[in-house]
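Schema walk-through. Below, the input block comes first and the output block second. Nothing else is stored per chain. Lengths vary across the set, and this one has 308 residues.
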Amino acid sequence: MSLKELAHPASDYSYAFLDAYAKRELRRRILKGIALPGAQIPYASRELPIARGWGTGGLQATLSLISPHDTVKVIDQGADDSVNAANLRRFITRMSDAKTTTDTLQATLIQSRHRIPEEILTEKQVLILQVPDPEPLRRVQSDMAKSREMHADRDYGQMWLVLYEQLVRFGDYVQGASYPVMVHNRYIMSPSPVPRWDNPKLHQAQHLTILSAGREKRLYAVPPYTNVYPLEFDDVPFRVENQRGWVCVRTGIQNKFMNEIPQADGSSIFEVSDTGYVSKLIQRDANPATGTTYFDDEGSFYHDGYLK
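--- output ---
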């Protein structure tokens, strides 16, 4: 077989790789997840030509929803050009003939690992997050059967105890990524290992968010315009990462989530982690105020519109 034949879209596979039964099952599970915001829905995770733990859950959700008319964007920790993002994008487009883009606002399906894009998504877009560990109660209850009972009973006292212990020992909430959130005042949910900075972006978002864990065979969803609040005590408000004063070396903007890049002389430079957004800013094709954040008078760092 020639190299050209190997690179040609495979015609002996079902459209978007998964068979019709698998896609139908996933869509039904997604609909159930939308009907029960934040609830974990089991599904039969299929084998894919990538290893579990490298995005099989998100990939299955994407392949079950994609059509030739969609435009897909794949990012890994904010980067469009990482090895994982590039390989997933190549596989998705080869199996679906869908168009690709690095522009967040042009995409209809956005599959992401560990970040929510900086630009505010719309009702016509779907965000699919890869999830390594969907169970937020795992740190307090290792028995998954008992965890499911706790969710059913809305028995989350142990989670509040964990937060209280953090405050007693450290004076603040210390959990970084996967900070637990309360969805629709019912289920505690793990928002994927996104930084705390991204948690408020789920609150009353216009877009549908689907979170899928292929290895754990669980998916869950946050429908549009749903209340999503990080766990916090009334007298100790939730805060995102304190990056006050950080300035992006490439664009000169502030109040975006940035990567800290150590230098040889011991200093650090900072760069906005959303590479597609950085490119648009450099080309002057984006509004720097999009999705801005601000400090309040007490130093707490909240996203615009995140008010109770």
